[in-house]
Amino acid sequence: MSFTGTLDKCKACDKTVYFVDLLTADGVTYHKACFRCTHCKGTLSIQLQMSNYSSMDGVLYCKPHFEQLFKESARISIKHVTMEGEPYHKSCFKCAHGGCPLTHSSYAALDGVLYCKHHFAQLFMEKGNYTHLMIYNM
Question: What is the pLDDT of residues 10-35, one digit of tens each?
Fold first, then answer.
C-alpha cells in the first residue's frame, strides 16, 4: 500500500502534506504539527467554534499572543497616527534620530522616516536638504 501526497504544500515548511496530516485554516494548507503560534511555537487547534488561533497577514498566533501583540491595533481605528496612509501604534510613533515620542499633532518625515520637528530641523533644514519634507500639523 502506498500513500500519496496531495499537491498541496504546507505553508509553514513548504513540504508535501499527506491527507492523513492535512489541516486547512483560512484556505491555507498546513501539516497538523506545523500549525503553531509564530510567537510562542505553541500548538494551535481548529475545531468548530473552539479554534484557539488568530492570524494577521497570513501569520498565525495563539489568541493570547495575538491580543498581546495587536491589542493596540483595535484602538488604532479610534485614535490612530498615520504617515502617508500607514497606521502606527502610539508606542511606535517615535523620532528616528532621538527616540523622542512624537505626537499626532506635529512631526516631520523624510523619505518615509519619522522625526520630531526639532531633530528634523537640526539634521536637514539647516543643511537645506528638505526637498522630500512632509511636516504634519493636525
Answer: 998 999 999 888 888 878 889 999 99
Q: Which three cell numbers stand for residue 134?
A: 512632509
Q: Residue ranges of the domains in the chain?
A: 5-72, 79-137
Q: Which residues of 116-128 are buried (b: 16+ CB within 10 A; e: fewer)?
A: bbebbeebbeeee
DSSP β-bridge partners for residue 115: 108
Q: Which three cell numbers stand for residue 108?
A: 516631520
For residue 54, CA distances in Å to 65, 75, 91 come to: 9, 18, 23
Architecture per CATH, domain 79-137, reads as: Ribbon (2.10)
Q: Which residues contact 105 (CB under 8 A, 6 or more apart)?
A: 136, 137, 138
